[in-house]
Amino acid sequence: MSEPTPEASRHIDTNRRRPWPYAATAAAGRQGVHPMDHEALASEMRGLREQVAGITDTALAAADGLLIAADTGDGIDAEGLAAMAAAGLGLARRTTQATGRGTLRRTVAYGSHGCAAFYAVGDTALMVVLGDEGIDVDRLHQHTQPALRRIGSLLTEGESSKERA
């Protein structure tokens, strides 16, 4: 198992330029866009990495692939990761629906140096977790569920604050 990435070389991107899910409306110049609590989202991702040995990187994205927040090392293109994760999760979601397997919860891709786990956060977002070859995937799944519920609540609160404005 590799050593955790030192905090000094981590990149925390809270992507305040595109407050999800209002990236398109913000870009179109609409007023009243209220960003969600990006610091709380980043805290959830850091907390998950601290709870599960072997997590190297995490990112949160909208279902369309726009990056919401990331806790990644310098060697990871967080925006590219978000886009690829959304494409992969979208394909997995369509596959489970087309084959009558119900609502997609997660998918995991294993490589020779670790894995990438993709989790649906409702229908509108996703979280991707990268792990080294020593990660305990069962432990990851166990600790991810409460984090996903809290992240889903944070995303919903961000949406609700916009609707109240």
UniProtKB/TrEMBL annotation:
<dbReference type="InterPro" id="IPR004942">
    <property type="entry name" value="Roadblock/LAMTOR2_dom"/>
</dbReference>
<dbReference type="Pfam" id="PF03259">
    <property type="entry name" value="Robl_LC7"/>
</dbReference>
<feature type="region of interest" description="Disordered">
    <location>
        <begin position="1"/>
        <end position="20"/>
    </location>
</feature>
<protein>
    <recommendedName>
        <fullName>Roadblock/LAMTOR2 domain-containing protein</fullName>
    </recommendedName>
</protein>
<feature type="domain" description="Roadblock/LAMTOR2">
    <location>
        <begin position="42"/>
        <end position="131"/>
    </location>
</feature>
